[in-house]
Amino acid sequence: MDDKDGRREGRQRAKADFRFDDARLCFAFAGTLADRGTDTPFERLARPQDLGRWSVESGCTTVAPSCAETDLDRARRLREAIQRTGRALADETAPAPEDIALINSAAAEPASVPELSADAATVRRHGNGVAGVLSMVARDLIELCGSEHRTRVRICGNPACGTPFVDTSRAGARRWCSMKTCGALAKKRTYRARSQSGA
After folding, report:
1. Is residue 179 helix, strand or coil?
2. Alpha carbon distance 137, 31 (integer Å)
3. CA geometry: angle at 166 spanning 161 and 171, to 5°?
4. What is d(CA 182, CA 157) in angstroms, rounded to the nearest whole number?
5. How far is CA 123 from CA 19, 69, 112, 113, in A?
6. Is the pLDDT of residue 139 over 70?
7. Which residue from 20, 128, 173, 186 has the least number of CB within 10 angstroms?
8. Distance CA 107, CA 169 (A)
9. What pLDDT is attached to residue 181?
10. Residue of 88 and 128 predicted with greater confidence
């Protein structure tokens, strides 16, 4: 069983595990390519099955859709368009027209449909396969761009990360995509540096 952060119960989170903590859906999707600022980025969508797993763990659908290599390629292209558009928002520059066209094309597909159980206790999402999942991701970015939060998009302060995030802090001074990952890593480095200088 997974927790809400996509981590198997009873074990530490692995590099291949998806990250959803503190992230909008569209930027959690951008984060499926980790370590962007390094010479060796880590691909979390390495196989079509990984895309199916992300679809379920993100809450976009209840049952993993069937995924082919062509679906994986389409998902990665959308992911990179979202990444570049997120960076453009953070830099307050115009995004590339081809990225906007790709995002709009994905959003035009029918989204995964929510269905309430008879006792109104649970919600299932189903239908439209990978295209429906990618539509939800693209629509989330479009919704962000149409909101007041578009001016709050930042790029993670961890040079190895590079994932966009929305700074919803009151002071607008958040630096990390997540305090559970990059923020915690920065704190550890600061602590070690102080300990070494003190020694």
Report:
1. coil
2. 12
3. 110
4. 8
5. 22, 29, 12, 10
6. yes
7. 173
8. 28
9. 77
10. 88
How much is the pLDDT for 170?
87
Helices 48-57 and 129-145, axial angle in degrees (round to 10): 60
6: left (phi over 0), alpha (psi -120 to 50) or beta: left
For position 199, what pLDDT does the model report? 54
* Domains of the chain listed by start with CATH number: 25-198 (1.10.3300.10)
Confidence (pLDDT) at 193: 54
Question: Cα separation of 187 and 26, whole Å?
Answer: 26
Overall residue count recorded for the chain in this entry = 199
Block residue for tokens 């809450």: 59
Instruction: Give the residue-averaged pLDDT of 42-65.
Output: 96
**pTM (predicted TM-score):** 0.86
Residues 6+ apart with CB under 8 A from 132: 60, 61, 65, 109, 110, 111, 112, 113
Q: Are 43 and 51 within 8 A, CB to CB? A: no
Rounded Cα distance, 123 and 133, in Å: 16
3-state class (DSSP) for residue 70: helix
What's the CA gap between 93 and 21, in Å, rounded?
27
Mean per-residue pLDDT, 84-111: 97
Q: What is the DSSP letter of 153?
A: E
Q: What's the pLDDT at 173?
A: 84
Q: Which two tokens stand for residue 104?
A: 């709009």
What pLDDT is attached to residue 6?
47
